[in-house]
Amino acid sequence: MQSPILQVALDVTELTRAQKIAEEALAGGADWIEIGTPLVKSEGMQAVRALRAQFPTTTLVADLKTADTGGMEVEMAAKAGANIVCVLANTDNAVIIDALRGASLYGVQIMADMMNVEDVVTRAKELADLGVQIINAHVGIDQQMEGKDPLDILDKLGDLPLEIAVAGGLNAETASKAAARGADIVIVGGSIIKAADVTKAARNVRDAIDHPAEGTTVKTSLDDTIRELLEQVSAPNVTDALYRKGAMSGLTVQYVPKKMIGKAVTVQTFGGDWSKPVQAIDECIPGDVLVISNDKRTDIAPWGELATRSAENKGVAGIIIDGAVRDWDDIVTLETPVYATGIQPNAGEPKGFGEINADISCCGQTVRPGDWLIGDQSGVVVIPRERAYEVARRAVEVQKTEVRIREEIRRGGTLGSLSQLLRWEKK
């Protein structure tokens, strides 16, 4: 079986960075270079021209996602040096036909992106009849964050009289599966272009698709998947994924012997009453995070060393207190992360005021039972339970981007120059 084409998508916004990444990707075995939509929107056709000048014999794909003026946009990309132009498959046939006319005139091919197409089989057959040369079984980045899988689209397409590409969050493992399922073109972006060593990452994907295997899929629960994703990232990565939201404030006291990740068991108490906080320990399962609101009082503590030891026995992942903690000398000898807004030796009385597993306000954030929390030395971030998988996926992408930028800084760049801050200042 002929090995699939490896297309590397340059989904960055800075041309200078894209050029270096493309050079390294080709050295690792990439066949085609895609001028990704973010790059096209940021740099325009100059991105295509620059990459054509840099790589005169490499197949260039302009991912315009054309939805109107088909012929005009194909002409622009073709004259700039593109060999293949991407249009949206769910646009009107008039646009597709006009794009194909332009492609015929200028000697380029049309790739139709199936993103957001409901009936992919019917639409793919229609596009094949119109003359489209390549169908892209694509799941967009925002859809990937919600768990949609491009391999599911690939499986539906079967045998069609045109080439099939697949794209959407692929890495070496999933690219290998795509090749095993018959993909002619495997499109990889983030797992290559965000790597510190782009050449090595491209080579890993190249080897994977040259020797395809389905492998075995181990099913894991959604909670386990979320936890595995959050293990890869930091609290700052997560708040970036939440568009700079979700961070708790005022946690000036913290003991973090390890990263804290888990689902919230919430407690509302008052005046240092430690009855409900202690009862809540028995409501926890291993991996939960105990989140306690002491009504912002730091003159009396609802938590101490004995409670911490009890929580540790239950496998609690961490404790957060909007209020004071006591027995700090002993707590810092244990293995459970503890965050608080103060230290105070006074304890309250166990009167039983308050509630377990109610919505609470804690350190400037609303926390509901089952919300996810991640805590490290930078602080604690709350993740809404209904968005936990999506946010965890987005945080991993943030972390990948930082890996690449960190490498470019190591090579002598600066954050300001790499990010082109002056260019992107809000006007």
Q: Helix/strand-derived class?
A: alpha/beta
Named at the architecture level, the CATH assignment of the largest domain is Alpha-Beta Barrel
Number of strands: 18
Residue ranges: pLDDT <50 for 5 or more in a row? none
The total number of structural domains is 2
- How many helices? The count is 19
Gyration radius, rounded: 26 Å
CATH class descriptor of the largest domain: Alpha Beta
Distance linking N and C termini: 53 Å
Percent strand equals: 15-25%
Helix content bin:
40-55%
The average pLDDT is 95
General shape: elongated
What name goes with the CATH superfamily of the largest domain? Aldolase class I
Largest sheet: 8 strands, parallel, barrel
CATH topology of the largest domain: TIM Barrel
Walk across the major sheet and give the strand order.
1-2-3-4-5-6-7-8
Pfam families: OMPdecase, RraA-like
InterPro entries: Aldolase_TIM, Bifunct_HPS/DMK_prd, HPS/KGPDC, OMPdeCOase_dom, RibuloseP-bd_barrel, RraA/RraA-like, RraA/RraA-like_sf
Organism: Methanocorpusculum labreanum (strain ATCC 43576 / DSM 4855 / Z)
Keywords: Carbohydrate metabolism, Lyase
